[in-house]
Design brief:
Helices cover 34% and strands 23% of the residues. The protein has helices at residues 45-53, 75-78, 99-107, 121-134, 151-164, 181-197, 209-214, 233-238, 241-252, and strands spanning 2-11, 19-29, 34-38, 60-65, 68-69, 82-85, 169-173, 201-205, 218-223, 226-232. Strands 6-7-8-3-9-10 form a 6-stranded mixed sheet, sandwiched between helices. Bound molecules: adenosine-5'-triphosphate and magnesium ion.
């Protein structure tokens, strides 16, 4: 469904600061795959997601989704197919607009003249139902500005917005890392629920080894812009955190396990 072939991305090409962020990524993702993506700081995880979403142009290689080659599509065109949720809860929503206005914008994503702020009555009812499912009481606050919400509420809303028009691909980049543990757990549970309900194809970057092993049906580890581990559901189910750490050690030595890598 997604086919990434020999994807190369450098930053500051030709200068002394040149960084080879993706050094030839080959990845085939099946429809409905939920892949957890791990790797140390600077491994290329966010760059891979950014290249998929079109935030960064690529040096060479191909990115296909279904029959379409979107290697050189601009970001806004890819947005009709790809949804993203970032680490920062402030990024996915528009603070001065109300909850229902944010949802209305998400509901029109990818359509021409799609960014008006108006909310139709039928849509309002749909939003109320969807918000109720989150179990956060947001269905009674449709007209509240999003800026009033907590980080966790905002991230839950962002997730809902990202999946409202079922995307072909959902990209999650450490989307629970900025939340307190309890809220992170709630947003994670919501993620699993929305991915399952909508049969989404998803890539989720995480530094949390337990999450990486527990969630999804496949796990990949990046290092130095390459995929150095790719395990499917059966193998993943057998793996322990120690096995992942062993793999980390084997490529970089003990200093490699960064303080951001959560082991629980
Ligand atoms: N916009 C950019 N300009 C220059 N260099 C960049 C840019 N984005 C990423 N890089 C570099 O590319 C490499 C890969 O970075 P990337 O952000 O993809 O890592 P990551 O695996 O997401 O790490 P982290 O776990 O810290 O988020 C790093 O060396 C980084 O410094
Ligand atoms: Mg990153």
């Amino acid at each position: 469904m997604i086919e990434i072939a020999d994807l190369v991305k450098t930053f500051h090409h030709g200068s002394v600061n040149e960084v080879l962020a993706l050094a030839g990524i080959d990845l085939k993702v099946k429809k409905g795959d939920f892949i957890t993506v791990i790797g140390s700081n600077g491994a290329g995880k966010s760059t891979l997601l950014n290249c998929l979403a079109g935030s960064y142009g690529i040096d060479s290689g191909h990115i296909r989704i279904g029959e379409q080659d979107l290697s050189h599509w601009p970001e806004h065109r890819r947005a009709a197919l790809i949804s993203r949720v970032f680490q920062d809860p402030l990024l996915g929503t528009c603070a001065p607009l109300s909850i229902e206005q944010n949802l209305a914008m998400a509901n029109r994503r990818g359509r021409i003249h799609g960014l008006g702020k108006g909310v139709r009555r039928a849509d309002r009812e749909l939003f109320r139902r969807q918000l109720k499912q989150l179990g956060l009481g947001l269905e009674d606050r449709l007209r509240d500005p999003v800026g009033l919400l907590s980080g966790g509420q905002r991230q839950a809303l962002t997730l809902l917005m990202a999946t409202l028009i079922r995307p072909q691909v959902l990209l999650l980049d450490e989307h629970t890392a900025a939340l307190d543990p309890k809220t992170a757990q709630q947003v994670l549970a919501l993620t699993v629920q929305l991915v399952a309900e909508n049969h989404l194809t998803a890539l989720m970057v995480t530094h949390n080894m337990r999450q990486a092993l527990q969630l999804g049906n496949r796990l990949i580890m990046l290092h130095g812009g390459r995929i150095i581990l790719d395990v499917g559901q059966a193998e993943k189910a057998e793996m322990r955190i120690e096995d992942l750490l062993q793999k980390f050690y084997s490529v970089r030595g003990e200093e490699f396990v960064s303080d951001r890598m959560m082991l629980v």
